[in-house]
Amino acid sequence: MKRFVASASLAALAYAGLGSVAQAAAPGQEESAETVAALFGAREAVQEASLSPNGMKIAMVQSIGTAGTAVAVAEYDKDPKLRTLLVSNRSAEKIRHCSWPSDSELICSVSVADNQMNLYSRLVAVYLDGKPLKVVTPSESSRALGFTWYGGGVIDWTGSKPGEVLMMRQFVPEREIGTHLASTLEGIGVESVDVRTLRRTTIEKPVPDAMDYITDGRGTVRIRGLNPTTSGGYDTNVVNYFYRTKDSRSWDLLSKVTFNASGTTTGFQPVAVDPTMDAAYGFERKDGYLALYRQKLDGSKTRDLVFSKPGIEVDDLVRLGRGQRVVGVSYASDYRKVDYFDPELAALRNALGKALPGGPSVDFIASSEDESKLVTFVGSDVDPGRYYLYDKGTRHLEEVLPLRPALEGRKLAAMKPVQFPAADGTMIPAYLTLPPGSDGRNLPTIVMPHGGPASRDEWGFDWLVQFFAARGFAVLQPNFRGSAGFGEAWFEKNGFQSWRTAVGDVDDAGRWLLSSGIAAKGKLAIVGWSYGGYAALQSGVLDPGLYKAIVAIAPVTDLSSLRQDHLNLSDYRLVDQQIGDGPHVSQGSPAQNAAAIQVPVLMFHGEWDLNVSVHQSQMMERRLRDAGKQVQLVTFPGLAHSLDDSAARTRLLQQSDSFLRQAMGL
């Protein structure tokens, strides 16, 4: 194997994108906490890769500086050196995704935040011939009665000519006073757009309740999802999906999907259309677990079970190629697996997995139009991952770029699936990561609950876990009850309404670490992000003193305030349903029980966090100070929930490490 582009230019670009990353210490020299924090706090050098229709050009969305993004292209039929086409150095402006309308241009999605806590997106066209970029999302007229928040997304290619896309976007109505030319179109609709001329034709007129359109991969819209709203403008928890038969323009009901307070769904949720089978693929529960079904779109509504695994949630469809052909299904148990329906891809995946060192996970993420060339992502728990380009004709595999070049050659910590008993005897699945070279006994240890709560941890590289392992900590990530991926019953009511069970499982994780001898006595702490931060704080209320220190990143701290934060947002009813009513609202709010916490608390929060308002952490800080507790809050101006900034993440890691060491007496 050889690198896809010249190694010198590739390495230069990769490290330039990381900004001022500290270099690893020389052999035999002890690394400083600052050095290790900078290495693991650096963002991924490559956030996404996509392949042109002819398979001769690859585009990458890259990280530059501490918070910027850029799009670079390598044309290996011309000059294989990476060429930067689009740059954003602002932390509030992120290039999210790029795709290829033709071999000569890209269409990219850019998200923008402002200091009024607004977030909106725009599509831009970028041309390889050097012509100035164009904004594909149309701007509002002076008569507009609103603002375009959703700038659109490419859902298909028209097939009529290269460079023409099907684009789903928001339409904003206009004032009719004084003109006969005002547009009354409102909602989400679909257009055909030529990205060179910006000539546009409405394919599906917008509907106020529309939230999704699904095509057949050949330029025809076959399914539409409508989310009814209340008279007050709030979203409901129901999406009605409608479909068209091949030769009809009328819509017929396909299914009704209900989003439950627990985090589960009820009903058949379509995600793709197979034009050759004239059927929709989608997920629905079977015996309490998600399974893949296929439903005919010929009017018969015949539904067949395609794939299920007893006791496992089948939760993702694997698609490939310009037409997004359905090629497999994905699910996670201890490890995430893909079962390919395409035997050629299955054989290739197995062969690459055996040929590459370490037996990594191999995923096909993009292909040329004829699928003769594939972009492949390869990674594992001890390999942050790298992109490869595979040519079926020559059977040649070339490395494109590693995700985290600063960690190249560094020994990372293995992640091991384990189980531990909860207080009621239920076995809780988790992942245990031990410091490299450790015997796993009497270690300073961190319990790290995940966010969500209707999410889960999976096996693989995790920069937060790996940093603490590199600093000598054992880390346990429990998939407590309330987590996704373990069946309907595992959700309970949800991680807030059933907080005693969820946080109880998190605390039982700590007790197991102590009783098993993994954690040294007096050297157990808890670190969590988002809901994980909530669980970390609430663990100090439920079992004061079990953990000797608490680090909470972007935590929910008061359930009543969380509900109030969404009062003027369209999802208020869904959040209200998730939180519910009863004594659990006050009892399950760390900020209302701050006096119970007996250990030092360190919190971090982005000031532009749209998921969990920074006011949640500010309230917790005030309540802890009023109760005479030891607390520190670090806020990051201009950053959102994920703290997508290398400098901020480096500070978070370094300060957390120092805080935990002091609390544990290390």
Entry summary:
The chain has 666 residues and is of the alpha+beta class.
Architecture overview:
The protein is an alpha+beta fold and 666 residues long. It has 11 helices and 37 strands. The chain has an 8-stranded mixed sheet, with helices on both faces. It has a 5-stranded mixed sheet with strand order 1-29-28-27-26. It has a 5-stranded antiparallel sheet with strand order 14-15-16-17-18, with no helix packed on it. A hairpin with a 3-residue loop joins strand 3 (57-64) and strand 4 (68-75). The chain is globular.
Shape, principal axes of CA atoms? globular
Tally of helical runs: 11
Task: Kindly report the oligomeric state of this protein.
Answer: single chain
The fraction of residues assigned to DSSP E strands is 35-45%
C-alpha-based Rg, rounded:
25 Å
- Quick check: average pLDDT? 91
Instruction: Tell me the helix content.
Output: 10-25%
Count of DSSP E strands? 37
Distance between the termini: 45 Å
Largest sheet: 8 strands, mixed
- Structural class comes to alpha+beta
Strand order of the largest sheet: 30-31-33-32-34-35-36-37
Low-pLDDT residue intervals, each spanning 5 or more residues: 1-21
List the helices and strands and how they pair.
Layout: E1 2-3, H1 7-17, H2 33-41, E2 46-51, E3 57-64, E4 68-75, E5 79-88, E6 93-102, E7 105-113, E8 119-127, E9 134-135, E10 153-157, E11 164-171, E12 187-194, E13 200-207, E14 210-215, E15 221-226, E16 238-243, E17 252-259, E18 265-266, E19 269-274, E20 279-286, E21 289-296, E22 303-307, E23 314-320, E24 325-332, E25 336-340, H3 343-355, E26 361-367, E27 373-380, E28 383-391, E29 396-402, E30 415-421, E31 427-433, E32 443-447, H4 463-470, E33 474-478, H5 499-515, E34 519-529, H6 531-542, E35 550-553, H7 559-565, H8 572-579, H9 584-587, E36 601-606, H10 614-626, E37 631-636, H11 646-664
Parallel strand pairs: 1-29, 32-33, 32-34, 34-35, 35-36, 36-37
Antiparallel strand pairs: 2-3, 3-4, 4-5, 6-7, 7-8, 8-9, 10-11, 11-12, 12-13, 14-15, 15-16, 16-17, 17-18, 19-20, 20-21, 21-22, 23-24, 24-25, 26-27, 27-28, 28-29, 30-31, 31-33
